[in-house]
Amino acid sequence: MNRIGMRAIKSALVIVICYLVYIGLVALDKVMVEGRMISKWFIPFVAAITAFFSVANSKKDLAKTSLHLWLLYMAVFMYSFLIMGVYVLIANKPWPEIESLEAVDLIIPSILVCIGVVFLGYFMLLANEKKRILNGIVLYLILVSINFYDSNFWQSFLAVFVSITFGVLISYFANLFPVHFKTYNKFLFVYGTDGIYNRQELSFDYYVKYELQELIRRGADITLFTNRSPSTLIPLIGDLKLNIPVICMGGAALYDTTSNLYLDTEPISLELSNKVRGYLNERGIIPFISIIRDNLQYIYKNLSNNIAELRFADFIRNNPYSNYIADEAPNTEVLFFSVVLPSQDIYELINLLKSEGYGNDLCFKAFKTTDVLSDFTDYLMLNIYSKKIEGLRALAQIAEGKTSMAISTSMDDLVLLNQADRIITYKNAPIEIKNKADYVINSTRKHSLIRVIKRFYYHKSSY
Fold it and tell me: How far is CA 290 from CA 6, 235, 236, 330, 383, in A?
């Protein structure tokens, strides 16, 4: 059963207070004066919507935040009256009621309102208020829909000013009482990004980033599992601040995104690395060779066999989190080999390597690289790792006795799925994952996986 959150309760209370205040002012008018003398200076709906928009979960930087919101809503208020004032001055007639039966009277005001929405959204983007664009536009549409020009202009102007100020003020006092969250700290949530974000997407969408950051801020242990290297992972997560190192390169490395340090790696031994290099070279295959040295990924390749490899080389050459060297790799342990070939050749190579017994010591992962090789639809990239990554030592290092919860939608996360204590997936996941999963969410939206993390982390009394 869904529960009503404490924030929803606070929001309802501030709305009730706004209307109770208005009822009280109307009662004063009845008792003290004839007609509307006091209540006309207060518009309950404007106060209520402003208060609702200003309710927050905590009282962190409350005074600064409340002042900021007040200035923002005042700017929207001034902008709304400017739109209406321009029409009144030019047309020399009052701003029409939205219920007007004269359609002609509504044409020009409606055009002005629509143009105003576009400019308001643009101005709020310039002011770095992307998160509050919807709030600003809703307030704007409310203000231009009320027929203020039935009465004195300045009276209407001051009534809106008072109402917005009261709404922000009442939410300030409501926010002094923070929402308390009871949590379970026994889980390590491992979010598998590769099935949720394909390699063509450049960054996490805002909703996911916000929800993950909010969970982390409240103490949830959350990390990521990906076949990406830090060079392509860091642009994806952007400014998301993780509190736990990420498992990257399919489990071959543990990387701290805060300090930009490799904390652990699972390389292929020197002897086996040399055997693989020799085997591939005998067949005319010159792989990309990734080595971690001085806390940086070095990628070596002295010759290219096809145009797709050249495209990939151009991509990694300009990446700030790796160092591409067009030369033969030094004689050392290799973190992983990468081969770029047509898909049929990739699968033939995997079968050859397995038939020669390399499958006992190596792990093979083939995938599309649509972010780099979007023009080469028939090509795949094969990464060759040490078989030891299947034990996922990195997960054991960061779990520290907690129950690991894999949130995954892709078979590319098979290493994680085989080692996690529990698996969460969604309705559209491959059947192999659904058969493995402990929890299958009855939803086709990947965002629903974030809400499941919240349900496991927050105590039932918190929502």
Answer: 50, 20, 21, 11, 10
Distance CA 65, CA 178 (A): 14
- Band (pLDDT 50/70/90 cuts) for residue 204 is low
Q: How far is residue 158's CA from residue 176's CA, in Å, rounded to a whole number?
A: 27
Residue 9 tokens read as: 């309760």
Q: Report whether 429 contacts 449 (CB < 8 A).
A: no
Q: CA–CA separation, 184 vs 179, rounded Å?
A: 16
The C-alpha atoms of residue 405 and residue 420 are separated, in whole angstroms, by: 6
DSSP string, 189-231: EEEEHHHHS-TT--S--HHHHHHHHHHHHTT-EEEEE-SS-HH
Among all chains, which residue has been given the structure tokens 């889980």?
187
| Count of Cβ atoms closer than 10 Å to residue 87 Cβ | 21
Both tokens assigned to 298: 């070095």
CA atoms within 13 A on the CB side of 384: 30
pLDDT at 152: 65
Element (H, E) at 118: helix 103-126
Find the range with the poorest average confidence among 40-49, 87-96, 219-228: 87-96
Return the HEC string of 1-58. Answer: CCCCCHHHHHHHHHHHHHHHHHHHHHHHHHHHCCCCCCHHHCCHHHHHHHHHHHCCCC
User: Taking Cα atoms as reference points, which of 158, 140, 167, 170 lies closest to residue 50?
Assistant: 167
Residue 262: strand, helix, or coil: strand
CA distance 50 to 168: 6
- Nearest Cα neighbor of 269 from 394, 386, 415 is 386
> Does residue 60 carry a pLDDT above 60?
yes
CA distance 419 to 439: 16
pLDDT tens column, 148-165: 544 566 778 888 999 999
pLDDT one-digit tens code per residue, 331-368:
999 999 999 988 899 999 999 999 999 999 999 998 87
Instruction: Indicate the pTM of the whole model.
Output: 0.66
Q: What is the DSSP string of 395-447?
A: HHHHHTTSEEEEE---GGGHHHHHH-SEEEEETTS-HHHHHH-SEEES-S-TT
pLDDT score of 197: 59
Strands ordered across the beta sheet of 221-225: 261-265, 253-256, 246-248, 221-225, 187-192, 403-407, 422-426, 439-441
Contact criterion met (CB below 8 Å) for 434 and 294:
no
